[in-house]
Amino acid sequence: MSIIIRRGPNDTTDSVIRKFQKKIVLENAIAEYRDLEYHKTESQKRQERRAEKMRKIMRARRLNP
């Protein structure tokens, strides 16, 4: 996976860095790297998905009483 950012004629170094950071987030590259860093069993993946669902449910309950 490679992420390429082209610098425009009016782009500053800061704007190029911001573009890069935004593209990293949009392509979900950091999460993908973390997933590949360590091997997880199927049961661990299921547990994480279940925990994520519960976090979303609890957050929705907390925000919408």
Percent strand equals under 5%
The largest pleated sheet is described as: none
| Radius of gyration over C-alpha positions, nearest whole angstrom | 18 Å
Oligomeric state of this protein: single chain
DSSP helix count? 3
Structural class: mainly alpha
Order of helices and strands: HHH
Overall shape? flat
Mean pLDDT: 90
Give the tally of β-strands.
Answer: 0
Distance between the termini: 43 Å
Would you kindly provide a written description of the structure presented here, covering whatever features stand out?
The protein has 65 residues and is mainly α. The chain has three helices and no strands. The mean pLDDT is 90.
Strand and helix layout:
Blueprint: H1 13-26, H2 29-37, H3 42-63
What does this entry show, briefly?
It contains three helices and no strands. With 65 residues, it is mainly α. It starts with 12 loop residues before the first helix and ends with a helix.
Keywords:
single chain; 65 residues; mainly alpha; 3 helices; flat
